[in-house]
Amino acid sequence: MKRFFGSAFGVALLGCLVLAGWAVWSAGVFDGPVARQLRSASVYVAPGVTLDQPAAERVIGNRRLVVAFLEPGADLSDACDSLGGAADGTLAVMLSRDGDDYEKYGCSRLPGRDDENFGKAFVAESMIGNGIDGFADRPVDALKVLVVNYDLLVRSGAIPDGGRTVSPSLPRYLIATAAVAAVALGSLGLYLAARRAGRVAVARKERREAEADERTELAAAAAVLAQRIIDLDQRYARQKSRSKFAQGYRSLVTDYTKLLPDLGHETPELRARVEKLLTRARKLSTQKG
Questions:
Q1: What's the pLDDT tens digit per position in 173-219?
Q2: Strands across the sheet with 43-45, in order?
Q3: Strand partners, 255
Q4: Cα 53 to Cα 41: distance, rounded to the nearest angstrom
Q5: Which structural domain range is residue 102 located in?
Q6: pTM beyond 0.70, yes or no
Q7: Which distant-in-sequence residues (6+ apart) come within 8 Å of 282 by Cβ?
Q8: 72 and 159 belong to one structural domain
Q9: Fewer Cβ close by (within 10 Å): the C or N end of the chain?
């Protein structure tokens, strides 16, 4: 295991696992239902609460405002704490029906809420829910009042102007970049490997064809040599055994017999031996006596 993670592949795999874990964590895998919904939407509706959510979303638009309609008796403070970083940059409002009124809890997620903008955040949290109690049975109208209050706070400078932007977290960008890079580098690697394999295959084919041609040429030369020996054999039968021709013929046949076991393996040395024997056979065919 230590050797595996010490290799380049193991290090890359470990880096990808860390990156993936970071992406999963920052994407809100451990978020509660309120944070999970408000991470990419502006309205959360608890089970059992009646509300036209698309209409509510349209009322808020792209303002830096998120609203959660929780079930009666819900702990609004805990709901606010559960948001974590899901609604950063917004003013969050937790609402719960309490008879003919709303129980309200504002929690600012705006920049600097705990430092230089603490006072502004306190004002925004205190004023955002003003006037909504008369619309407990009409939640969309209650949202319209919240939006009016929000716009007033923007004009007063308690809330920074501008719309809410929901963008993927940095790990997601890194994962996407890593995926694209892996595909690009993988494709390039496959292309280069295929080209190399093609070159190797072509070179191997050419080498085999050259070896086959050389074996064919050797076989042809050996066949010519064998025919020469057969032709000389007829003359040898008519010669005296001690003649110069007879001695040369017997020497040629002896060398040819030694050559036969090696004919299945073509080598430059073997080709040279065949050519040498052919030269001797030609000289014998022109030799007199």
A1: 556 566 656 666 666 676 677 778 888 888 888 878 777 777 777 77
A2: 43-45, 65-70, 91-98, 101-108
A3: none
A4: 10
A5: 31-168
A6: no
A7: 228
A8: yes
A9: N
Helix, coil or strand: residue 96: strand
Compute CA distances 59 → 54, 55, 178, whole Å: 9, 6, 39
Residue-wise pLDDT tens digits, 43-101: 999 998 999 999 999 999 989 999 999 999 999 999 998 888 788 888 999 999 988 89
Q: Please indicate, yes or no, whether residues 179 and 238 belong to a single structural domain of this protein.
A: yes
Beta bridge partners of 45: 69
- The tokens describing 201, both together, are 């295959």
What total number of domains does the chain contain?
2
Q: Specify burial of residue 127 (Cβ count, 10 A radius: 0-12, 13-18, 19+).
A: middle
User: What value does the mean pLDDT take over residues 93-116?
Assistant: 88
Helix ranges (H only) for the chain are 2-6, 8-26, 33-38, 53-60, 76-81, 118-127, 139-156, 170-236, 244-259, 268-286
- Residues 35, 153: one domain? yes
* C-beta of residue 80 within 8 angstroms of C-beta of residue 92: yes
